[in-house]
Amino acid sequence: MSRKFLQTVVRRALEIAGAVLMAILCFMVFLLILKLIFPSGTPLSELMIGGESEEEEVAGVRPRTRPGEQLEPFAASIGSYHNTVRSKRSADVAWSDVREGMLLYNKDAVQTAKQSSALISFDATNSLEMSSNSLLIIRSLTRDPVRNDRKSVLLVVDGELRGRLSGSPQETVQVEMALPAGMVRVQSRKSPDGKADFTVRVNPDKSSTIAVRHGLAEVTAQGRTVRVGPDLFTTVGLTGPPTKPRELPTAPVAVSPTDNVSFAYRELPPKVRFLWQGPAAIKGFRFQLATDPEFKKLVVDEQVGPAGFSHGSLRQGAYYWRVTSLDGWSEGGTSPVSRFRLVQDREPPRLQVDFAPAQPGDRYYFLTGTTEAGAELFVNTKPVPVDGSGAFSQTLQLQRGINVITVEAVDAAGNITYKTHRVMGKF
């Protein structure tokens, strides 16, 4: 075998190896692009097995059926949503945007993006609210004809859910949620008034925290079940049983801005400083700022310390804020919602001054007028009190000769209106 032949073989082998490596690299880049385009999360194939092909129809969203096969009942629907919320049928590859009123069937998945939310409704009085960056899968909806119970089973893969159940004497609503390391069961009839209000959160370390504000929840993991009553919470790790229920931290008290206060500005919006008072032992809080009282349209949703929070780039309009106490992974009571407004004002304040003629021999001059309510008033640079209606009065001591009187009104946004008048002191 000649040397030239060996060189040719080696060169061809290197070319083939390079082509293979290039193909692998292109495939990895393609997978990276898919990961960026489609929502992340645990693949549905790892969470459930089986499922039949489903499709959308013009009249609504429902699964495909074979000839002669009965259509399965839907488990829930999208009551409302905000920002980016997507859904996926169990047998589909791609995710699609949801729409209000969209029906959800067995093994459907719903995912919310950052600063997004979705309301999963079972009926008019029973629902689950998905917070930002949450993923759940609806497994089934069954009914016990003997006990007249309805049960919906959900697989909570990531994020946070808040449930509100309201049964009746004729029917009980039950929700079961499969967590990464346990199971939560909430029944409306477990509460004296037939209602339940609870929160389930999958934490970053894949533990789960279950908090009950009203009603009763049963949490099972590693063969142990604990009952979590009102204002209590428990945490389930990946390897241990549920912790002993503990009390939820008490709600903070909002200090500033006070409810219904307004901030006026001329050009640049002011920096709004949010302050509250929390329990002495609590060092972490969740601060939320929204443009609606239901906190669907969130502007800020962050975990902060006890020192407060500042925001200096808010647009003109009404805002709502609240803060909750955090004890580890548990979120406790919420402060009352406070509302404030940012108002851009470029109009100078109204100012009317009654400059009466001075009489010969008068050493004092009595000045009266009205201005915009809430404006500051200055006469010859000295502040003058203004009553609630904007009325003011001031007595000035005249000097012999010409006296120049300057009256200035300054509103909360910094707009200025001024008037001047000359009075002759004759004495």
Short structural summary:
By secondary structure, this protein is mainly beta.
Number of strands: 35
Share of β-strand residues = over 45%
Q: What is the mean predicted local confidence, pLDDT?
A: 83
Number of helices: 2
Low-confidence segments, given as residue ranges, are 37-62, 65-71
Give the overall shape, derived from the CA principal axes. Answer: elongated
Distance separating the two termini: 131 Å
Topology, element by element:
Blueprint: H1 3-37, H2 44-47, E1 54-57, E2 60-63, E3 76-82, E4 85-88, E5 96-97, E6 103-104, E7 108-112, E8 117-121, E9 127-130, E10 135-144, E11 149-166, E12 172-179, E13 182-187, E14 195-202, E15 208-214, E16 217-221, E17 224-228, E18 232-236, E19 246-247, E20 253-256, E21 261-265, E22 272-277, E23 284-290, E24 298-304, E25 309-311, E26 317-327, E27 330-334, E28 338-344, E29 351-354, E30 364-371, E31 376-379, E32 382-384, E33 391-397, E34 401-410, E35 416-425
Parallel strand pairs: 11-12, 21-28
Antiparallel strand pairs: 1-2, 3-6, 3-8, 4-5, 4-7, 7-10, 8-9, 9-11, 10-11, 11-14, 12-13, 13-16, 14-15, 15-18, 16-17, 18-19, 20-22, 22-25, 23-24, 23-26, 26-27, 26-28, 29-30, 30-33, 31-32, 31-34, 34-35
